[in-house]
Amino acid sequence: MAEPIVMVLTAMLLGQVVMSVPVLLINRATRAYRLPLALFLIASGVLALNAIVPVAFPDWYQVYTVIGFPMLFVLCPALRLYIEGLTAQTHWTLNKATLKQFVLIWPALAVSCLMALLPMQQHRALFVTDEVPGGLYAVVLAGAMLVLMCLWLFECGLTLLVIAKRLLAFRAALKARYSNLDDPRIFAAKRLAFIAICIWALALSSAFLFSLLEHTILTLGTDMLIALILIWSLTFFAMQQTSPLLAPEAGCAANKQDAPGTEGSGGKYHKSALDESQSARIVNKITHAMQEEQLYLDADLTLQKLSQKSGVSPNYLSQVLNETLQMNFFDFVNHWRIEASKARLLASQDSVLHIALEVGFNARSSFYKAFKKETGQTPGEFRDRNR
User: Fold this and answer.
1) Which residues cross the membrane (predicted)?
2) Distance CA 77, CA 382 (A)
3) Which residues are paired to 178 by β-bridges?
4) Dist. CA 267–CA 200, nearest whole Å
5) Cα angle vertex 40, ends 187, 229, to 5°?
6) CA atoms within 13 A on the CB side of 171
7) Which domains does the chain have, with CATH numbers?
8) pLDDT in tens, 334-379
9) C-alpha distances in angstroms, 204 versus 133, 146, 217?
10) pLDDT digits (tens, 9 = 90+) for 129-145
11) With bands split at pLDDT 50, 70 and 90, how would you rate the model's confidence at 200?
């Protein structure tokens, strides 16, 4: 009989999956990039049953392994595709190219069919008692499973690297478009990527330690508790993410013909029509907008808003910021905010938080970080040394 705590935690995890999947897919606008997450949750729920089926329903365990084994090979590609859709800068949908990432599911299904034909006694020896299976059929099946599991571990490592790389690129893209990264949607997206990395770090470390020491480090109950927390966190932050943060904003399509070009052998902007004199005029335009209209005071200022105010396409703005001013949009706006905060720090007794909010920051921590990066001092140190 399975431990009561394991059964309770498994039931909670299954309940979380059953309630979350319909909610995640109910919105048609977000269904495309949330579908891989739904597949990931369903596969996780099926695999979680492995904690109770062998002991609570032993007669059904062979049927369960036939269904459950392919689910293992859904996890990695489903999570990769979800993170890809979440961080995409264009309209993202599932297509034949993305579905190729499920390449291991086909040999897994073939092995699953072989499991279904395995005599029950040999199935028990292979999956329950860990005995050496007898007969050529069982040996071939065990060998095929071993090869697939090795490939799965490799895919787990690849998934970890892909998600980490995607997160770094996502952060850079956010800084090219937003002046504040304290938005709740951005926070939720960052937590989603972090949780995804945690899931695969846990999966890889558990598999490695089990193969090295031949026994689990954590109890089954602890494993289920960690899995429940991670799945709950993943669905909680996913539900807060109502749209991809880097999806094209309204008006961007109109500027598509002005795009400075795509990345290639000559650099990111090698096809751009901008010359030095045009770049200088754009710098003057955005400098005037920041000085005269004090756009940096808007905590929700984005590249698109600056484009509308200055009359310069977002593509050209990005090029001028990156090539002429040697900074991204995030650092450009924060530079103006820091300059405005310096005068306020010296001229008033207002708290640092009050000044931070006044000049356009959303949080004290982000103000401190930007101020230290710009000046090499904290706001308090700057105030004390310059009075």
Assistant:
1) 6-25, 37-57, 63-83, 103-122, 134-163, 192-211, 217-239
2) 49
3) 302
4) 34
5) 55
6) 12
7) 4-240 (1.20.1070), 274-385 (1.10.10.60)
8) 999 999 999 898 888 889 899 999 999 988 888 999 999 888 989 8
9) 27, 16, 13
10) 767 667 788 888 889 99
11) low
Burial class (CB in 10 A: 0-12, 13-18, 19+), 211: exposed
Q: What are phi and psi of 178, to 5 degrees?
A: -115, 150
The alpha carbon of residue 293 and the mean position of all alpha carbons in its chain are separated, in whole angstroms, by 36
Give the number of other CB atoms < 10 A from CB of residue 316.
22
CB atoms inside a 10 Å sphere around CB 125: 18
pLDDT, tens digit (0-9, with 9 covering 90-100), for 100-117: 899 999 999 999 999 898
CA distances from 1 to 5, 6, 7, 222, 281 (A): 12, 10, 10, 17, 76
> Which of the four pLDDT bands, split at 50, 70 and 90, describes residue 217?
low
- First-to-last alpha carbon distance for the chain, in angstroms, is 73
- Which comes out higher in pLDDT, residue 321 or 238? 321
Report residue 172 as tokens: 């850079």
**The two structure tokens encoding residue 347:** 């001229």
> For residue 133, what is the DSSP state?
P
Q: Are 244 and 185 in contact, with CB atoms under 8 Å apart?
A: no
- CA 312 vs. chain centroid, Å, equals 31
Does the pLDDT value for residue 26 go beyond 80? yes
Q: Please tell me the predicted confidence (pLDDT) of residue 265.
A: 37
Name the nearest CA neighbour of 42 among 20, 65, 69, 12.
20
Q: Compute the distance between CA of residue 156 and CA of residue 104 in angstroms, rounded to an integer.
A: 12
Residue 70 tokens read as 């392919």
Residues in CB range of 56: below 8 A, 6 or more apart: 1, 2, 7
